[in-house]
Task: structure prediction
Amino acid sequence: MTLLAACGSTPPGAAPPASTPPVAAPSVTLPPENPAPGDHETAFRDGQGTVRRYIVHAPPGYTMNKTHPLVLVFHGNPGAAEEMPPLTKMNAVADAHGFLVVYPRHMYETEATAALLDHLGPKWNIDPKRVHAAGFSRGGSYVYELAEKLPGRFGSVAPVSASGATGNPLAKPPSLITFQGGQDRLRQAWTTTNANWAKSAGCSGEKITTITMEGGPTHIYTTTCTGGAEHVVYSVTAMSHLWPADASKLIWEFFVKHPLS
Result:
């Protein structure tokens, strides 16, 4: 008896085995996306066919008859999109001021975010000059990446309790507002992060003011950057790894001042 030298080989003169047909990936039915006021859990397919899920909050006065500002809010990791509305209270600010908020799920790839913006623009009638991004922790670090890798897509951005910024030069930096806690576990990264962004965005001429926030003194450092952009750092001395209670209101006021030029 002769043993075959390799598993699956074909004896001389025998017909080759039939190939196994490919197994089709299970089809995914995307949830409906009907632009209207309220909260919507929906999805789209990006350029590679990957299903990308996100939550949309549209204010009470939302209508497709006019364009609307958009704020993307990225969650941390670990974290979930559903955690961000109660954490940030951004929906209440959106209702008061008439902008859309989108909370992407586990989206930390710039190509996917670019595809999301391309999808949301016509679907929800977004004003391309008033698109902004905010993020908490890992989501905030991703916002620094978006600012570098998707130039011209955001008027202004807001990383919260997040390190980031590479120091690479930015031809058209967006304006940036950030909140950093003096009791945060990441606090040793703040100096490098801020110096790198200042280098990237060409910032100079620092001004300092002091207010009370989160039960302690907060120093606000403001500089002017390339193209008239601003770099504003809220150094919240009493804060740990949090999203400050007043941050969403302050972020929106900053975004209104800094659309895409």
